[in-house]
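1st attempt posting a full record on here, be nice pls
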Amino acid sequence: MRDPNLSRALAGRLSPQRRAADLRRLRAERFDVLVIGGGVTGAGAALDAASRGLKVALVEARDHAAGTSSRSSKLIHGGLRYLEQLEFGLVHEALTERGLLATRLAPHLVRPVPILVPLPGEPGARGLPARAWRRAYYGLGVAAYDAFAGLLGGDRGMPLHRHLSREGARRLFPSLRADALAGAIRYHDGQVDDARLVVTLARTAASLGATVVTSARAVGLIRQAREVTGVRVRDLEAPNGAGAEFEVRARTVIAATGVWSDDLSRMLDDVGVRPGIRVRASKGVHLVVPRSAITGETGLILRTPTSVLFVIPWGGHWIIGTTDTDWRLDRSHPAASARDIAYLLDQVNTVLERPLTTADIEGVYAGLRPLLAGEADSTSKLSREHAVFEPMLGLLVVAGGKYTTYRVMAADVVDQAARRLGGVRRSRTADLPLLGADGYAAMWRDRADLARRHGMPVGVLEHLLERYGTLTLELLALIDADPLLGSPLAGAPEYLAAEVTYAARAEGALHLEDVLTRRTRISFETTHRGLESAEHTAELMGAVLGWDAATRAREVDHYRARVAAERQSQTMPDDATADAARLGAPDVRGFAADRGTDGDPAELPSAR
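the predicted structure (as tokens):
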């Protein structure tokens, strides 16, 4: 439980000192619930359990959101295409969660983004029947989308849809080819910085007393007879030798390991247990181009031969994605190939007046979706529903699902743990604002006064509010104490130096890539991919984490190698060669079995 003498914000700081204290707790205490995996589902499960008054710990092998949860399309949405697949329950559930996030839980992180659905059709009278049919068909789908979200009431969090003529559509999106559409429908979904939401979930769990430790890899299950009673954990930041590996005791272990769930299944196979479920990884690649490359005020959603394609405004950039292909190679660092990039460019160029080329690309990122495996040949047809199962007493696994419904997944798996533990109250996360949400509306309303009091441009303060909510006051305090922290970060002027310092002091960032790829998005928002920011970032982080010159240099070298490997992989013709190129850069955390089942077969690489 949280120390009542501390504020929520202070109790939720993931500082270096907090990590050391939490490591001591992992070694010494027995927990009601131990969560393996620091993605959105794992962080959500830790928060749900802690909010019920349970004694909770979370371990993550790398960084918060280091896997799938930082590599999405940055949307909180119900999934229009799931309506076509008649998954009405999934759509309604996701849209309900969208409303909660946008209005109550995280309004500082989830906000409406307008999206156009272009309506293709032949010009002239001959094409009139086809145009009318398409408008009716798509219009019905978007109307159903609004209906599932709730047509009335403030909990929607999003405006209703609107039909547009060809001229109206091109006024909103001048880069659309006139001959590529007969009109459009505009609707709204939610946009989020996925990695920031996960960090905020983890911090909110910590504020309620949860023990939260990253760079702590689960390497095996502890069993008594047929019951799991804990997990062996290795501290990846500890020097090699005695003391780096230890046991964590728990009444219940929850594995929220996403695309690594099958590794856990193989471990259970070794003791004759069959989990009865399989997770399949689908690779999604996204391109990032500057805002100047496309002229438009809204996003786009386009049908492709295999799935759908989003073109989403992202600050001074556009995010274009995604692919949807089966992936059986390295899961820690999925690689985008030249083929993936060419596919996305080909698809988006079918509707743009000025075609995009590789010269327009600022950044590329690839992620893996954990899909419940089924009979479908195409990953785009596999279910996005989730499942909770108990392969052994004391071990619960939650798998599948989609980012938007993380809270439902977390509540479901903790409900099952609660039945085992007994005497546990129901989930309350639907009414629990995340850190930074309380008082956000009032602070946003008064942002001009706040900026004036701190001698800061309103635009800079808005940037902070949309990333930290009311926790912005903590960054302003850093800047007041050291005005140099109010300066722009080298190579990334849209970010402040204070954000790097705060990431190391309060957000659990332990390595350079944690900041450049997740606490900020500099690694894909700049053409230099963060290289021009690396040394300044290392200097700022080092001041907090106690890095000497050799450590700073090693961090920068690791990051440069990572960028070089990613760039090389993106020139390779296919998945196999792209994967081989990406694996040319070692992981900064340096554990030996970073590639699935390589290394010690007793280790659990799914805790990522």
